[in-house]
Amino acid sequence: MRLVDIFFRGQRFALLGLNEAGPWETGEEFFAAFNNAHGAFNHVWSLVGRKTDLDAMGQALGDPSVAAILLVGTGGSGKSRILKQAIEAFEAGNKGVVVRYLSRNVELTKKGLEDLGDRSKLLVVDDAHDQSDLQLLFQYAADPSAKAKLVLSFRPYGLDHIKAQASIFSLIGPSLREIALERLTQADSEQLASQVLKKHGGPISAAKDIARLTRDCPLATLVGAQVVAKEKRQFDFAQHEDTFRTLLFSRFQTIIAGQIGNKSEAGTIKNVLRVLALLQPIHPEDAALLHVIEQVENIKPHDASRIMRLLTEAGVLFKRGTQFRLSPDVLADYIIEEHCVGALGASSGYAETVFAHATEKKPNISWSTSADSTGDARMAIPATADLLTGSGASSSQNATTVIRTSEPSRPSPTISLPKRSNLRRS
Questions:
Q1: Cα gap 42→319, rounded to integer Å
Q2: Are 153 and 127 within 8 A, CB to CB?
Q3: Is residue 331 situated within a structural domain?
Q4: Residues 154/129, Cβ–Cβ less than 8 Å
Q5: How many domains does the chain have?
Q6: Predicted pLDDT at 46
Q7: Which range marks the domain in which residue 118 is found?
Q8: pLDDT of residue 420
Q9: Residue of 420, 11, 80 lying closest to 243 (CA atoms)
């Protein structure tokens, strides 16, 4: 490999079949953080109630007339889990096809696509609603000589925008296959909850109530079963589902904090989590990040580094590309909403404090929230990827990330923020 890098720079994949240090990862690399059965969040649970979706994915993957597959599902609906199983099945039966996942937080370039070589390939983008470089990918896939098929998974609010970008390169009609995830049945949700309750020694009798309150969000079902099993106390299952979900994610955050490090540090861990939820993606060794945590939460850099290492080992903070994010993303959404939104949707002031320390130029933050027809509530916050480096957001946005963009071709990077009353649908 070293000889190839020296004498045939950029040809590592074409000559050796190995990835360059760039935007692409194998399925094993992409999902590595979720294969730990002991992690707080993982993809080890048996997939239930998704045969129709998996069959639809398999049919689309095997159809040569389909150039791009759009897997659409709300936050916590299981998109990534379905994607993993469907792609693994395809890969097992199509050894001659190169399968690569686009790593998060790494800029896609023409060279990154050219380095894939001329073999048939399947390129997968999870959480495509967060990507700003999809036009380049669609342009590449539209060229028959690229021999590339795309699979993109994303939340419903990204559908119109992504389809508009695909249409620019004539990826429309039969060449574009849309698969929308439906909610699980009550029986399927009960089976999912029972898996978790059984593993953690919880009351199997609670599975029915947990499923009833969470069945349109499998992630909430998993979280709920873990909380009920680990809390070892009675829950009021008669309360409204929104109230129950809010309690679940609050308790899940507490359980995570209580299981990591010393019990006396639970409060400190939760304080680190709320900074990370706002500033992700991050790198645990970033001195600027450690400075922000110290200034905002009064946690010394060495303690913050140790806590982030513990979060990584527990599967709560996971690596995507060169940076790290909290898992699951719906938990990060909840943490942001809990700490950053006050009464009637106004700012609590916490995010302004964090961002003021993250960059010398305080961003102009708009704290309005809204919900579209999909139920996805959005909050306008700064594009935090550049804050710690001091570069700020793009000049076209004046260091502000807005809720919606009036130009479909120029999306504004946003954080999807489910209100507590909308956690089931975000």
A1: 14
A2: yes
A3: yes
A4: yes
A5: 2
A6: 84
A7: 2-30+50-180
A8: 39
A9: 420
Residue 201 lies in a domain: no
| pLDDT for the residue 191 | 94
Number of H helices, E strands in the chain: 17, 11
How far is residue 245's CA from residue 319's CA, in Å, rounded to a whole number?
27
Residue 248: its pLDDT value, please? 67
CB burial of 219-251 (b: ≥16 within 10 Å; e: otherwise) equals bbbbbbbbbbbbeeeebeeeeebeebbbebbeb
Give the C-alpha distances (Å, rounded to integers) separating 128 from 2, 116, 153, 179: 33, 20, 6, 14
Give me the pLDDT at residue 220, please.
81
Bridge partners (DSSP) listed for residue 121: 98, 148
Tell whether 159 and 23 lie within a shared domain: yes
Q: Where are the alpha helices (DSSP H) in 22-133?
A: 27-30, 51-62, 79-93, 110-114
Which residue positions in the chain have pLDDT lower than 50? 1, 360-387, 389-426
pLDDT, tens digit, 9 for 90 and up, residues 56-108: 999 999 999 999 999 999 888 889 899 999 999 999 999 999 999 998 767 78
pLDDT digits (tens, 9 = 90+) for 100-153: 999 876 778 898 898 898 899 999 999 898 787 899 999 999 999 999 999 999
Name 122's bridge partners.
99, 149
Same domain, 176 and 321: no
Per the structure block, which two tokens stand in for 334?
A: 């909840």
Non-local (6+) Cβ contacts of 373 within 8 A are none
- Report d(CA 357, CA 62) in Å as an integer: 50
Tell me whether residue 202 is in a domain.
no
Query: Cα-Cα-Cα-Cα dihedral of 75, 317, 47, 222, to 10°?
Result: -70
